[in-house]
């Protein structure tokens, strides 16, 4: 899938860390902000100003991060920014996957990650852009669209032809 549909792979890479980052992570999550508040009775936590979230090779930056809890379980996470910026570094020589939008919403109950407002995902020069990108973490389904009159734009860069060393031997 990744060779033929690299932008879909980029979207999955974008959504997957957001989807499981808050669910019993194997790596620590670091959240930095100018200010934070926690209201246990209301089931909310808010981080404001120069928010930075780091988990492993994933970094997300925004202006405000809000968590909504149902008891001790995370119900939703919302990140606002002008824009929210996401970057996932990869092993090897691959360029990082980067994305941005004005808002990222993760609904843990529905398993939906949503990028809203000028959403854009870029991986290795390939780009997927829309006003609204929704990723269902359970079905791995991506739906893009937006307001009436908005468009989805996908840019796929040409792939380099295989070198002589990479070409299969001709059958005889």
Task: Give a short synopsis of this structure.
The chain is mainly β. It has a single domain (6-155), classed as lipopolysaccharide transport protein A fold. It contains 1 helix and 10 strands.
Your description of this structure?
9% of the residues lie in helices and 53% in strands. It has 172 residues and is mainly beta. The chain has one domain (6-155): Lipopolysaccharide (LPS) transport protein A like domain (lipopolysaccharide transport protein A fold, Sandwich), CATH 2.60.450.10. Strands 1, 2, 3, 4, 5, 6, 7, 8, 9 and 10 form a 10-stranded antiparallel beta sheet that branches. The chain starts with 5 loop residues before the first helix and ends in a 17-residue tail after the last strand.
């Amino acid at each position: 899938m990744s060779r033929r549909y690299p932008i879909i792979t980029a979207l999955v890479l974008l959504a997957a860390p957001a989807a499981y980052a808050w669910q019993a992570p194997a790596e620590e999550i670091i959240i930095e902000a100018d200010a934070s508040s926690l209201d246990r009775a209301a089931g909310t936590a808010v981080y404001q100003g120069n928010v930075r979230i780091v988990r492993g090779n994933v970094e997300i930056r925004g202006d405000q991060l809000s968590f909504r809890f149902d008891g001790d379980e995370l119900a939703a996470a919302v990140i606002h920014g002008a824009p929210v910026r996401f970057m996932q570094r990869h092993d090897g020589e691959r360029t990082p996957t980067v994305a941005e939008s004005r808002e990222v919403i993760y609904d843990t109950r529905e398993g939906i990650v949503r990028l809203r407002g000028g959403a854009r995902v870029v991986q290795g020069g390939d780009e997927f852009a829309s006003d609204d990108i929704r990723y269902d973490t359970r079905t791995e389904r991506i739906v893009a669209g937006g307001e009436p009159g908005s468009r989805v734009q996908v840019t796929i860069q040409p792939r380099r032809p295989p070198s002589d060393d990479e070409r299969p031997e001709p059958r005889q």
